[in-house]
Amino acid sequence: MKIAVIGGGINGLSSAWQLALAGHKVSLFERDSLMQATSAASSKLLHGGLRYLEQGEFRLVREALQERRWWLKKAPQLTRRLPILYPLYHDSRRARWQLKIGLWLYDSFAGRKGIGRHRWLTAQQALRCSPNLKAEGLQGAYLFFDGQMDDQKLGMWMAEQCSKAGVQLFEHSPVKQVAADAKVLLHSGWQQFDRVVNVAGPWSQQLLQHSGLMQQPLDLVRGSHLLLPPIGRYGHMLEVPGEARIVFVLPYQDKTLLGTTEVRQHLDEAIRCSAAERDYLLNVYNHYFLPTCTKDSVLADFAGVRPLLSGSANASKASREYQLNWQGQVLTVSGGKWTTARALGKQVTAQVDQSV
Ligand SMILES: Cc1cc2nc3c(=O)[nH]c(=O)nc-3n(C[C@H](O)[C@H](O)[C@H](O)COP(=O)(O)OP(=O)(O)OC[C@H]3O[C@@H](n4cnc5c(N)ncnc54)[C@H](O)[C@@H]3O)c2cc1C
């Protein structure tokens, strides 16, 4: 079949690749350049998402852990195994036994070919791994492993796989409208396809709206990151004081990546880190590390928008699952994670094949 994929983020590229591998003739349309939006503004983690276990998202975590293994194996030059510390203090929100259960499940879901099993470190051992952590009140830390990537480069690697599989990639080609009978309106006029896959991330519902098609409710939530000077080779998963949220402090390209926030976003606002988000992130950092960082320590910042499936008042607790919805011959993808992009692409392909 002749298929149009709209959106050149990781989900659009992975869907296009899987569709082409299944024998379809695929054209992908990206309004700007490939891999410049949400998919290049992530926390750079290939992970199952330890915190989603608390929300009972077992299917998602298990799938993401399998996908984590796939990325690490297939693109070793752009990915790596990252040791992460979860320090526990006297006043930590989660108890040691709770974390133990979560990490045991996490390792079990990763399977026998996982990337390393968790273990408990005493306070002294944790401080040896991460000397900048505050020692006062530290009881110890769990050490576990996840994957880390260069999201932009890994996405461009996926674009290469697309080209090799015969996908035609069109950059600077905004789709203005879609029609339920699989027509796509480009600058040059309407083009007919057999199926259209709308993977425009946070903009997927806006495209449906401009096309006069029914929309799915999505919550748009901005997440910002700061880049700070380096503090070591271990990542950290940290509880935000007084909140159920967690924040990551990770080594990344000779710097420290600190994120993220959760702030409601409208598509007509600029997607950028606000001063309030910067202060919030620095406060969390300074709660855990010495020497402290000020706004002058910030080397750079960036932000992206999560399109989350609606239904949770709290963005932290909103599902990271994806959903696929047909309207005529148009399939719209909502939600999802970077790590699970290939699995999503397989689902898209299965749905397209079943629709014949
Ligand atoms: C702050 C933050 C941190 C995250 N961290 C992680 C993480 O560490 N690990 C993880 O697994 N996941 C993470 N995620 C989730 C992950 O980044 C996203 O799920 C994923 O990048 C979404 O990809 P996408 O292709 O759907 O969207 P996008 O990357 O936004 O791509 C959509 C594309 O569609 C294009 N487009 C829009 N409208 C049109 C149109 N009309 N015509 C043509 N093109 C159009 C846009 O230009 C864009 O390039 C994070 C998300 C955020 C926001």
UniProtKB/TrEMBL annotation:
<keyword id="KW-0274">FAD</keyword>
<dbReference type="InterPro" id="IPR036188">
    <property type="entry name" value="FAD/NAD-bd_sf"/>
</dbReference>
<dbReference type="InterPro" id="IPR000447">
    <property type="entry name" value="G3P_DH_FAD-dep"/>
</dbReference>
<keyword id="KW-0560">Oxidoreductase</keyword>
<protein>
    <submittedName>
        <fullName>Glycerol-3-phosphate dehydrogenase/oxidase</fullName>
    </submittedName>
</protein>
<dbReference type="Pfam" id="PF01266">
    <property type="entry name" value="DAO"/>
</dbReference>
<feature type="domain" description="FAD dependent oxidoreductase">
    <location>
        <begin position="2"/>
        <end position="349"/>
    </location>
</feature>
<dbReference type="InterPro" id="IPR006076">
    <property type="entry name" value="FAD-dep_OxRdtase"/>
</dbReference>
<comment type="similarity">
    <text>Belongs to the FAD-dependent glycerol-3-phosphate dehydrogenase family.</text>
</comment>
<keyword id="KW-0285">Flavoprotein</keyword>
